[in-house]
Design brief:
The chain is built from three helices and no strands. By secondary structure, the protein is mainly α. Helix 1 packs parallel to helix 2. The protein starts with a helix and ends in a 15-residue tail after the last helix.
Length: 124
Amino acid sequence: MAVLDIFVTLYQALCFPIYGIAKVRRGDYIVFDRHQLGYLNFIERFHCEYCAYANGLIAYAAEITARTEQYFCPIKHARKILGTHSQYARFLEFGDSAEYHAKLEAFRLALAAPPGDSRPPRPG
């Protein structure tokens, strides 16, 4: 998990500024607060914090990947897939070449959120 965390964070730090993509705030996805629950013993708290980190990290990495996909290839797959990310529903239909070329720049511009804004981007 830590290796994934390091790599997606470095990828975002190096690549997102080049393409003008708003960065994903890690703290919006990885939240450690369950240790405050007094009714959990030490082992239960540890398990809760591990799950918070693991699930938060996967969501953080998924959002970074979603923004990358929106920039480079905002096209739905030909067949239905499970577990789509936050941007997928707005992507263009598979095989719609006219819309792809007409709307690609709008998808890219939607990724340039104001500084400090980590909300999921939406094309115009």
